[in-house]
Amino acid sequence: MFKTKTMPVVLAWGKENSGALGLGGSERNTVLTPSQIPSLDGKEIRSISSGVGHTLVCLKDGQVLSCGSNDFRQCGRDTNLNKLGEVGEGLQPHHVIQVAAGASHSVVLTQAHEVLTWGKNTEGQLGRGDVEESSRGTPKLVKSLAVCCVLQVACGYDHTIVLTNEGCVGTWGSNAYGQLGLGPNKSPWINIPNFITCLKGLPIAQVAAGGNHSLILSKSGAVYGWGRNSFGQLGLNDTSDCYLPNQCRPLRSQRIKYICCGENHTACLTVDGRVFTYGAGTYGQLGHGSYNNEILPRQVIELSGSEVSQIACGRSHTMAFVPKSGRLYTFGLGGSGQLGLSTTENKNTPVFISGPFVSGTAQHTSMQVDNQGPDVKVKSIHAGGDHSFVIAEDVD
Length: 396
Known about the structure:
By secondary structure, this protein is mainly beta. The chain has strands at 7-15, 30-36, 45-50, 54-59, 64-68, 85-86, 96-101, 105-110, 115-119, 136-141, 150-155, 159-164, 169-174, 189-195, 204-209, 213-218, 223-227, 242-247, 256-261, 265-270, 275-279, 294-299, 310-313, 317-322, 327-332, 347-352, 357-358, 376-384, 387-394.
């Protein structure tokens, strides 16, 4: 029996007026339903990261593409910014394996475990040992990390986090809310990587960052957070900012396997497919049927009958994918179409997109991409700013 040939496709929806969806000259400010990005058809994609107004795409061949806002040269290139184009200068010798987009800066990790940065640098978020009003448009190595083997990178709005193979967590950039985790009485910004000494010896699986808060997930499933906590986004049963990592104790027994952050909210996925959210609920992004903030983790009950395999957070919206049914659920802020529900209404409970998605068992949903073209099988979901993306395979 011959295997059906599949073609990689990427779907995007949400805020488009900056060009961050890469749809190429779309006259729409908002894209309300999943729309195929033609320039990515057939390309093997490793990951996508979206900031407030720009997007980075990492291809499996090591190239990086960018599009969107470029006011601080965060795209790393200067022309046709409403379409995806290669970040060439400064990256061509490097094979990139991960991308991370801050509000207006960009960070990549290479196959050689090196870190390069570019874009806004007013608070030292590039980690190059300087701060300036002008931005840096060419990717350059963070030289002080040359002695480290970096495994992961993550960006908050104006700060950066790395995880090394020795389990060390390094941070730099804005520290206005303690989001660098270096303790009280530190500078409001730091322009070179500093390592969080109190985490030494803790086996760490993942680092993540929200607008102004930071998280780590230990290999045993414990979640630690620090930084801004005005909305309870650290899950510590209070709203005081934290200058050092604090464990979110209510999650200790939940076997967390993945964490992600919005601007002021946090989402966690358990090994058995349950979703917990906490922090800002102003737009319904916590999915609990209200617009309240939550200062403790709370399970999204509407998803409790489904085994969720992936979650993603945009600025003020959340996504969850259920592979058995092929359903992609979204909730939260919808004003720019980022929920993919053909409306700009906010939703405070999970609603599945009547889109082109199919499950692993080929149970089809009711609609195709922009009402035309083939159904697709979801491989991964991504969100950032007011944008949403799905990396998928055409199954026709």
